[in-house]
Design brief:
single chain; alpha+beta; 6-stranded mixed sheet
Length: 421
C-alpha cells in the first residue's frame, strides 16, 4: 500500500486540491488513482478532501444538543460506553499515509464523558448557548476521533447532551440511529452487549463495487451529464461559491400549509413512488423555481441527498451511506409547480439508476451551488426530551434547504442555510 501511495501522490495539499478544484472530466486520473490508493469510500474521500482544504472550519459535522430532563449521568455514561464499544464507526480514525487518507478502527477502550456544570451561573440558558457556540468551533481531529461529546448540567435535574459527529463516518440517518439507540439503552438500563452491523464491512463492499460494470456505467453516466452542467449562477447578482459563511433561517409551515404540501405532492405522485419521495420532489421543484427567480437562470443545478439505505442491514448500520446526486432542472417561465415536480420525478428516476457513485462537484466551477436534504421523520422521543440540530455557521454550499417533516405537531420545518457574505 505504501509503495502504491507514493506513486499516487507526493504532496497531500496539491493532490487534494486537484481532486476538489479540477474542472476536468469526472473520472480524471487524479481522483481515480487517489481513490484507489485510499481505503475510504468515494464519498468519504470527497468529504475528507473538502475538510482538508478548510481544516479549521466545521463544514461536515452533525451537531446536536439534546435537552434531557431528569437524566442520570452515571446511567448515561454506561449507555454511551456500551454504544461506543459496539459501534465501529465511532471508533474509526482517519490518518494520512504518504499523503493519502486511510481509515482504521480502534479497539474498544474506556471513554470518559466530560461533564460541564452551569447550574450556578447567572443566566444558565445564555451560558449554555455560549458554551455550545464555542464548543462547536472545535473541529474534531480525525486522526484522533471522529466525534466530540459532553454532558452539560443547567439545573438540578436538567441536562443537555452535546454531540458532534463528523459526516465522514455518519450521515444524518446514522446520527438519528445513534441517538435512538443511546436513548433506548439508557431507558432499558440494559447491560446486554449490542450488536451493530459493521460499517467497516460496508466500506469494504463499497470499494469492491468500484470494479463492477455497474460502477463503470454510473461513472460514464455522470461524466456525460456533468459535461452539460450549467454555469455557476450569481444569485442576487453575487458569486455564490466564494465563501463558506452561512446563517440559518427557519420557516415553519402551519398545519394548513403542511396539509396543502402533502396534497400537492400527491397530485404529482408517480405510481410506485412513496409519499416521502413525492414530497421531496415537490420541494426540489420549489427550490428550483426560487433559484431561477433570484438569478439562477432557466437551467438549475441542485445537489440532492440520497440516503442509499436500501436493505434492512443498511438501515441498522451506523455509518456513511448517503450520496449527493446532481439534478439539472429546466425552469420555463410558463411552467407550473405540478409540471416542474413531474420533471424532477423523471430526473430522480434516472439518477437513482446510478446512485452508487460519488459525484464530484469542483469548487472552481461547481455543477450546483444549492443542496436539498429531505429528512425522514425522527423516532418518537421520550416525554421531555428535545433534539436540536445546531448549525455551525459554515457550509459547503451557497444555499441548503433541509425539510424536516412533522414530529409532535402537524407543522413542517424548512431550514434555509444561506451565504452570509
Amino acid at each position: 500500500m505504501r509503495t502504491a501511495s507514493r506513486r499516487c501522490v507526493g504532496d497531500v495539499r496539491r493532490s487534494i486540491r486537484v481532486v476538489i478544484d479540477s474542472d476536468r472530466a469526472l473520472a480524471g486520473s487524479s481522483f481515480e488513482d487517489l481513490l484507489e490508493c485510499s481505503n475510504l469510500t468515494g464519498r468519504q474521500f470527497l468529504i475528507y478532501a473538502g475538510q482538508r482544504l478548510h481544516p479549521r472550519l466545521v463544514l461536515y459535522d452533525a451537531v446536536y444538543a439534546v435537552r434531557w430532563p431528569g437524566l442520570d449521568p452515571q446511567c448515561f455514561k454506561r449507555a454511551w460506553q456500551m454504544l461506543f464499544d459496539s459501534c465501529d464507526a465511532l471508533r474509526t480514525i482517519i490518518e494520512e499515509e504518504d499523503g493519502v487518507p486511510q481509515q482504521r478502527t480502534l479497539p474498544s477502550s474506556r471513554f470518559d464523558i466530560e461533564c460541564v456544570d452551569l447550574r450556578h451561573v447567572v443566566e444558565p440558558q445564555h451560558a449554555l448557548d455560549e458554551w455550545i457556540e464555542q464548543r462547536t468551533c472545535r473541529q474534531p481531529v480525525l486522526a484522533k476521533s471522529v466525534f466530540d461529546t459532553a454532558l452539560v448540567r443547567t439545573a438540578e435535574a436538567e441536562y443537555v447532551w452535546y454531540l458532534n459527529v463528523h459526516h465522514i463516518v455518519a450521515d444524518a440517518a446514522a446520527v438519528d440511529l445513534l441517538i435512538r439507540e443511546l436513548v433506548e439503552l439508557y431507558s432499558r438500563g440494559s447491560v446486554v452487549p449490542l450488536s451493530f452491523p459493521s460499517f467497516a464491512q460496508h466500506v469494504s463492499e463499497e470499494r469492491a463495487r468500484r470494479r463492477s460494470p455497474q460502477y463503470r456505467s454510473a461513472r460514464d453516466y455522470w461524466q456525460s451529464l456533468l459535461a452539460t452542467a450549467p454555469a455557476p449562477p450569481q444569485l442576487y447578482g453575487a458569486d455564490t461559491h466564494l465563501t463558506t459563511r452561512q446563517e440559518r433561517v427557519v420557516l415553519r409551515l402551519d398545519a394548513a400549509m403542511s396539509g396543502a404540501v402533502v396534497a400537492t405532492a400527491r397530485t404529482a405522485w408517480a405510481g410506485a413512488m412513496n409519499e416521502h419521495a413525492a414530497i421531496a420532489n415537490l420541494f426540489t421543484a420549489v427550490l428550483a423555481m426560487y433559484l431561477s427567480r433570484v438569478g439562477g437562470g432557466n437551467r438549475i443545478g441542485i445537489g440532492v441527498i440520497f440516503h442509499n439505505r436500501n436493505s434492512e442491514l443498511d438501515q441498522r448500520t451506523i455509518g456513511l451511506f448517503m450520496e449527493i446526486l446532481p439534478f439539472f432542472i429546466t425552469v420555463e417561465a410558463s411552467a407550473c409547480l405540478i409540471e416542474l415536480t413531474r420533471q424532477v420525478s423523471d430526473v430522480a428516476r434516472k439518477a437513482l439508476r446510478h446512485c452508487h457513485f460519488s459525484v464530484r462537484n469542483p469548487t472552481g466551477s461547481p455543477a450546483y451551488v444549492a443542496l436539498l436534504n429531505y429528512k425522514k421523520p425522527l423516532f418518537p422521543l421520550p416525554d421531555g426530551v428535545e433534539i436540536q440540530r445546531i448549525h455551525p455557521g459554515h457550509g459547503a454550499h451557497a444555499v441548503s434547504l433541509s425539510i424536516a417533516p412533522p414530529q409532535r405537531s402537524a407543522e413542517w420545518e424548512l431550514w434555509f442555510d444561506v451565504n452570509r457574505d
